[in-house]
Amino acid sequence: MREKINILGVDIDKLTLEDAEERVESFLNSNNINTIYTPNTEIVMEAKKDDDLKRILNSGSLVIPDGIGLVYASRIKKKALPERVTGFDLSIKILSIANRKGSSLFLVGGKPGIADMAVENIKKQYPNINIVGSHHGYFKGTHLGYKEHEEEIQVLNKIKEAKADIIFVGFGAPKSEKWIHENKDKLNCKIVIGNGGTVDILAGTVKRAPRIYQKLGIEWLYRLIKDPKRIKRQMVLPLFVLIVLFSKDDIVK
To answer: Which of 8, 11, 145, 207 sits most deeply, having the most CB atoms within 10 A of its CB?
Structure first.
């Protein structure tokens, strides 16, 4: 039975990275389509004002706390999440499992050419993974407000025909989540994960924050230093802190 914590209306699985890895193993042994979402503090705040996004996240087969703010909030409210579980770290675990089991993988997302670059790097490090296809994210589809557009239908048919066990979706949040939810029954897979910039990191075009930032849980600060334009998005973080500290409502349960 899943043990979950609800933060601002979003159900987050209470687990460690090792626990999440075990869940992935069980998903690959199932005959169902399993959705994995990786919300951070920013996405939970977005879901607070977007009921559709909240509903989508809460429908996930696995929802991990990819944000140190969520972990801190749970601890402040005495409902402690055991640790932060990032989408990137879980994605690497998924690749390791897929390599061991000889599972198949499809990548979709990023600028034209990025997914292809990620494929080549994955082949070098995980030679037993059967990579059955890739496609960039710059097609007209649900994630860009073009539901059931001809371009989206072509991509969906390509993915369906590939019969991948695992699909990485890298449109960024909340685009990935909304696209996955709308199209999951057409994907013909066992696992589909919205894992943000993972495809870009695997392609080598984006570097992950140095280890010290990861350990301190401040990767957001590293990304902000690298791209100051993110400041508008990051403004929700202090607001989240204020809500956690001073709200009289039961925001974590």
So the answer is: 8
CA distance linking residue 46 with residue 33, whole number of Å: 25
**Among candidate residues 28, 66, 24, the one with its CA nearest the CA of residue 177:** 66
Distances (CA, A) of 4 to 60, 65, 70, 84, 123: 12, 11, 13, 14, 35
Rounded CA gap, 212 and 214, in Å?
5
Torsion sign over Cα 125, 129, 133, 136? negative
- Of 43-57, 125-139, 230-244, the range with the lowest mean pLDDT is 230-244
- The separation between CA 158 and the C-alpha centre of its own chain, rounded to angstroms, equals 22
Q: Which backbone phi and psi does 181 adopt, to 5 degrees?
A: -60, -40
Averaged pLDDT of the chain: 92
**CA–CA gap between residue 120 and residue 126 (Å, rounded):** 10
- Give me the amino acid identity at 112: P
Q: List, for residues 129-167, the tens digit of each pLDDT value.
A: 999 999 999 999 999 999 999 999 999 999 999 999 999
* Torsion from C-alpha of 147, 151, 152, 154, nearest 10 degrees: 140
What is the C-alpha to C-alpha distance for residues 247 and 38, in angstroms, rounded to an integer? Answer: 25
Which residues on neighbouring strands pair with residue 175, listed in sequence order? Answer: none
Distance CA(22)–CA(193), nearest Å, equals: 15
